[in-house]
Specification:
binds calcium ion; 2 domains; alpha/beta; 5-stranded antiparallel β-sheet; Immunoglobulin-like; Inosine-uridine Nucleoside N-ribohydrolase, Chain A; 10-stranded mixed β-sheet; globular; 22 strands; 438 residues
Length: 438
C-alpha cells in the first residue's frame, strides 16, 4: 500500500522572537558514559560536568550507563534533575555487561530523590541506539568520555546500519567523534595519597571487568583516544567540602552513603576525566596536564603496554601531570584539586534556558510501511524532540529523525516539539499530515 502525504507546517513563533537564542559556539559537545555503579566518583564526576555546563563551557548531549545495576541509571537521573537538566537522555546498556554492588548505594540515593515510579536501568533507551541517533544527527564533532566500562563503545563499533544512519558504528564514530577520553589503564607506579601503592598490573577496573570490550573497543577505535590513567585521578582527593553544601544535595548524600557518615575526600579518577574532556589541558597559567603521545598494545585480561613516541596513523596519548612533568609549568596537584573541588561543590545555577526554537520543516516519507519524519536541528541546545499525535506523545527523538511504526492513523495531526535540557518544550510547532490516496 502506498501513500502520498501532503503536509502543512505552521509555526507560531516568529523569527524575531527567536532572536534571543544565541548558540554558544566552540563549546564541546559531550556524551558522558559512566558505570555509576560501584564507586561514588562517577556521581562526583557528573556533578563536575553539570557545574561546567552551568558555566557555559560544555553541552551535555547524553548520559549513558555501562553497568547492569538497576539503580545506576536512576542515580544518574537524580544528578541530572538536581542540576535542572531532567530532559538530558539517560541511556543504558541493555545487553550483557558487568553487574556488581553499588558502594554508594545507588538504590537508596534514587529512592530518596526520585518520584515513583522509578524508571530502572533496564527500562531506559538502549545505549547503542542512543549513540547512533545522536551521532547520526550531529553536524559537529562529539567528544565521548568513558568513566566506566567500554561495553557500550564496543557494541557501538560493532553495530550495523539502521534507520538512523546507513553507516556502520565504526564509520559513524570515524565521521562524528573527535576523540574518546578513556579513564583507564595504570601507566605509572605511584603511591596513592593515602600511602597505599598502586596495583601495577597495568590495567584498572574499568578495563579488567569487561576486558574483551576494552580490548576490542581500543583496538578498533577509528579516531583519537586520550587515556586518563588511574594515577592521574588517584593522586588527587576531593569530596570533604561537600559537607558545606545543602543537606539535600544528592551528590553530598552519595558521598555520605559511600563513607557511611560524613562526606570525605576521595580519589578523582572520574572527576579528572571530566575536567580534561571539557577543558582539555587547561589554558594560560592554569594548565593542568600535558599530553604524552604513544602507542598502546592490549594484552589478555586488558593488561597493556605503552610505548612513548609518535606513531603515524595512530592518535593516542595519555595525560601526564606535574608529578611526571615538574618542568612543564603545570599547576601543582593541590591546585588541580582546588579546581575540581570548587566545581564539585558549586551550587546548581538553574538559569532559565531559552525556550527551544521551532522545528521549521519536516520531511515525511515511508519506508517498509513505516512513516519516517525528519527535520533540521532546531538549534544546538535541544536535548530531545517529542513527537505528538494530537495531544498524545507517541515518542521521543534524540536525533532529528523519527519512525512511526503504526501508520494506520496517519491522518491524525502530528506535532514535533523541541525540548531543552530543563524539559521546556518549544511552542506550538505543528505539523499536520494528511494522508492522500494516490
Ligand atoms: Ca566509574
Amino acid at each position: 500500500m502506498t501513500f502520498r502525504f501532503e503536509f502543512f507546517v505552521f509555526w507560531v513563533l516568529s523569527c524575531a522572537m527567536l532572536s534571543c537564542f544565541t548558540p554558544a559556539m566552540g563549546q564541546p559537545r559531550v556524551i558522558f558514559d559512566t558505570d555509576a555503579m560501584t564507586d561514588v566518583d562517577d556521581i562526583g564526576a557528573l556533578a563536575v560536568l553539570h557545574a561546567l555546563a552551568d558555566r557555559g563551557e560544555v553541552h551535555i548531549l547524553a548520559t549513558i550507563v555501562s553497568a547492569k545495576h538497576e539503580y545506576a541509571a536512576p542515580a544518574v537521573q537524580v544528578v541530572n534533575e538536581y542540576y535542572g537538566r531532567p530532559a538530558i537522555p539517560v541511556g543504558a546498556l541493555l545487553g550483557p555487561g558487568v553487574h556488581l554492588n553499588s558502594n554508594y548505594k545507588a538504590q537508596t540515593l534514587a529512592k530518596r530523590f526520585l518520584r515513583e515510579p522509578i524508571l530502572l536501568t533496564s527500562q531506559r533507551i538502549d545505549a547503542v541506539r542512543l549513540y547512533r541517533e545522536i551521532l547520526a544527527a550531529s553536524d559537529e564533532k562529539v567528544i565521548i568520555m568513558t568513566i566506566g566500562y567500554a561495553t557500550n563503545l564496543r557494541d557501538l563499533l560493532e553495530s550495523g546500519p539502521d534507520e538512523f544512519s546507513p553507516l556502520t558504528g565504526k564509520e559513524l564514530v570515524a565521521a562524528r567523534v573527535e576523540k574518546w577520553v578513556n579513564m583507564g589503564g595504570n601507566f605509572e607506579n605511584r603511591r596513592r595519597a593515602d600511602g597505599f601503592p598502586h596495583d601495577m598490573n597495568n590495567t584498572n577496573v574499568n578495563w579488567e571487568r569487561d576486558p574483551q570490550a576494552a580490548i576490542t573497543a581500543i583496538e578498533n577505535w577509528p579516531t583519537e583516544i586520550v587515556y586518563v590513567g588511574r594515577e592521574i585521578g588517584h593522586s588527587l582527593r576531593v569530596g570533604a567540602a561537600l559537607k558545606d553544601t545543602p543537606a539535600d544535595n544528592p551528590v553530598r548524600v552519595a558521598y555520605e552513603l559511600f563513607f557511611g557518615g560524613e562526606a570525605k575526600d576521595h580519589h578523582c579518577a572520574d572527576l579528572s576525566t571530566v575536567l580534561y574532556a571539557v577543558r582539555g589541558l587547561g589554558s594560560g597559567n592554569q594548565r593542568y596536564w600535558e599530553l604524552e603521545t604513544g602507542r598502546i598494545s592490549m594484552k589478555e585480561g586488558a593488561k597493556f603496554s605503552w610505548e612513548t613516541g609518535d606513531f603515524p596513523g595512530r592518535k593516542e596519548a595519555r595525560l601526564v601531570d606535574a608529578l611526571t612533568r615538574p618542568d612543564a609549568g603545570l599547576l601543582s596537584l593541590p591546585e588541580v584539586e582546588k579546581v575540581i573541588s570548587d566545581l564539585l561543590i558549586a551550587a546548581p545555577q538553574k538559569r532559565p534556558l531559552p525556550e527551544p526554537p521551532a522545528v521549521e520543516q519536516v520531511d515525511v516519507s515511508t519506508s517498509n510501511g513505516k512513516l519516517v519524519l525528519s527535520w533540521p536541528a532546531a538549534g544546538r541546545d535541544v536535548a530531545c524532540y517529542r513527537v505528538y499525535r494530537g495531544e498524545q506523545v507517541v515518542g521521543t527523538a534524540y536525533g532529528t529523525r523519527f519512525i512511526i511504526e503504526e501508520n494506520d492513523d496517519a491522518a491524525a495531526p502530528l506535532a514535533i516539539r523541541a525540548v531543552n535540557a530543563a524539559g521546556t518544550e518549544g511552542r506550538l510547532t505543528r505539523v499536520i499530515l494528511r494522508e492522500m490516496a494516490r
